[in-house]
Amino acid sequence: MPLFLLSTFAQAEEVVLVSEFQARDPAAAGFSALLGPSLHAELDARAEIDARTPDEAPDFKEYSSRIYVASCPPGEAVGCAFVVGEVMDAPFAVTGQVRTQTDGSRVVEVNIIDVVDSREALGLRIPVAPGDDEAFVTSVADVVVAVVLGEAGQVEDIREMGENQDEVRRLSALDNDAVAAQLSELEGKLGDVAVVADRNVRRSEYTLDDLSSDMEAEGAKPWERMNMSPGEYMKYKNSGLTFPQWTTRSAGRRFQVIVRGAGGFARGPSDMEYYGRYALDDTTLAVVDQYGWQALSTASNGKLGAWAGFGVAPTVEVSVGGGWQSGRFYMAIDRDYAELTGDSYEVVRSEERGDNVDSVLNGGWWVGGRALFAPFPVSKARPIVGGGLVYSSIFDPSLKPTADPADSPVPLFKPQSAVEAQVLLGGEYSANPRFDVYALVPLSAVVGGRVSSEYDGSTGVIEVFESVGEPSPVGAGLEVGVAVRFGGGDREPAGMPYDYEL
């Protein structure tokens, strides 16, 4: 497959880091030292590729990327190239190693790394006879171009085509054909070429024995060079994350502004009940007695709201919020008729509503503050615990229809309110470093507020009173929502992470 066909899938030059090739024996040192610069020059001459060297990568805190690559431990060339490629934001990297055979010939292992997907896109073992150096570099460059443009073109087209899987499969076959054609040409020029299976870039398990050995070693410890504690270093080594990913995630929510939008329901003091009773002179219909109360009542209702928080530590945020909650307003008014007998009144008949209570949709607003603790900031999924206070106020019932507005002398009351202390339990999942989804179960207890009001203008005529209502002292609910993070401070690494390997 001609390479000019593949170039139609690439919208711009693809950045490729050409790292150093390691010599695995002294006799291979000269050839390996020339391979990196030669391959870089060959790839940089291609219109499709923007080839770069480690000298063009950003430095680590105490080391340049060039020193990092030059100091890469034997056998870890792929991991070191991966780290520098990620720091450089290069989608692809090329590195390898050279061995000398007993007959004086050389075998070169070429590793083409897909940095974005954290995997080795293609690995080749190629024999290079004396005099084949130029043909080797040119042919390897052809393979690199085929792999890079094929991988990049496929990623772009998958993003654009969404679920058009037939077209995706066609493009994938096209890319594989192009790479196969270049490998066939390479084998025709240089002889047997061994293709290494696609492999992920990963870390080896780091054990307590390894930690103990590093503690006993002389010189600066690896966790000291990376600004970590020994325990954190062990977690990092076994996390499966790249070093830049670890430093970003371990900073957690420190110095971040976190905005949450949430909805859910709660069982708590969100409804309101009103009860009134009055007595009339049976002859003149004058009011001779009256009594009433209003109180919050417990119910399950919906809640909406938003929170704005600030990360005071990687695992802790404090926030304030507010919103709206639904509810109902219940009203019942009973009436007595009394006759004057001597100096006192005596009830002769009553009009009671019983269970026939008027109700209208109501609601209220709430504000609150809380602190959340979310351990394990490096993990995508983590538990949350927290606590806070919420103040809620029910809308003024005087704005609502009453059960007997025309002739009831019993006054209406100001809105009721409640202060609830909350314990929060739940969890969150980070879809990416800036976006979370979360769920919390608030367990609440009423600790204050004006949960009831009572008016007693009784003169002793009314004989039947209904006790003042009150909400349940405890409640619970469910809050689900999304969180968007802004800002934040990444921890700065202090040294070089030598811990990537195949």
Provide a descriptive summary of the structure in words:
- With 502 residues, the chain is of the alpha+beta class.
- It has three domains: 3-200, Rossmann fold; 208-240, no CATH class; 251-487, Beta Barrel (Porin).
- 24% of the residues lie in helices and 42% in strands.
- It is built from ten helices and 17 strands.
- The chain has helices spanning 3-6, 29-44, 65-70, 77-88, 133-161, 165-190, 208-216, 222-225, 230-237, 243-250, and strands at 14-23, 49-52, 92-100, 106-114, 119-128, 194-196, 199-200, 256-281, 287-313, 316-341, 344-351, 358-373, 381-394, 417-432, 435-448, 452-456, 474-487.
- Strands 8, 9, 10, 11, 12, 13, 14, 15, 16 and 17 form a ten-stranded mixed beta sheet that branches. Strands 1, 2, 3, 4, 5, 6 and 7 form a seven-stranded mixed beta sheet that branches.
- Helix 2 (29-44) links the parallel strand 1 and strand 2 (49-52).
- It starts with a helix and ends in a 15-residue tail after the last strand.
Key terms for this structure?
seven-stranded mixed beta sheet, 3 domains, alpha+beta, disordered N terminus, 502 residues, Rossmann fold, ten-stranded mixed beta sheet, Porin
Structural class: alpha+beta
CATH topology of the largest domain: Porin
The total count of helices amounts to 10
Report the count of strand segments. 17
How many structural units, i.e. domains? Answer: 3
Averaged pLDDT: 79
Low-confidence stretches: 1-11, 152-176, 197-203, 402-406, 491-502
- Estimate the helix proportion, in percent: 10-25%
| Radius of gyration computed on alpha carbons | 37 Å
Please identify, by name, the CATH architecture of the largest domain.
Answer: Beta Barrel
Percent strand equals 35-45%
Task: List the helices and strands in order.
Answer: HEHEHHEEEHHEEHHHHEEEEEEEEEE
* CATH hierarchy class name of the largest domain: Mainly Beta
Judging from the principal axes of the Cα atoms, what is the shape? rod-shaped
Main sheet, how many strands, which sense, barrel?
10 strands, mixed
